[in-house]
Design brief:
Layout: E1 15-17, E2 22-25, E3 28-31, E4 36-37, E5 46-48, H1 72-75, E6 79-80, H2 83-89, E7 93-94
Antiparallel strand pairs: 1-5, 2-3, 3-4, 6-7
């Protein structure tokens, strides 16, 4: 996978139309429901079988995840827990 972000394409094997209205005419993806060229970014019926279609039309398979490390000192003071909750959790203070 690359670091660049890519827009979702109707030719992707994981792309599906919820209305089942996707056909191909002259090499272009055509929506029979809207009777226009398929635009994944603005179509509310566009779906990804893998669940990676982001709201702005970007394919989530090519988005690099960011990880953030948080130090315990950045969180702040521990919180005192009331008695009944402390018995369930087994601890008196939570971070």
């Amino acid at each position: 996978m690359t670091n660049e972000t890519r827009l979702c394409q109707p030719k992707c094997e994981a792309f599906r139309c919820a209305k089942k209205a996707l056909t191909y005419r002259q090499g272009k993806a055509w929506c029979r429901y809207a009777d226009d060229v398929c635009d994944v970014k603005s179509c509310k019926f566009a779906q990804c079988v893998r669940g990676k279609l982001l709201p702005n039309g970007v394919c989530g398979l090519y988005v690099k995840q960011r990880t953030v490390s948080i130090r315990l000192s950045d969180i702040g003071e521990p919180v005192k827990v009331p008695g009944k909750l402390a018995r369930k959790l087994g601890e008196r203070e939570l971070f």
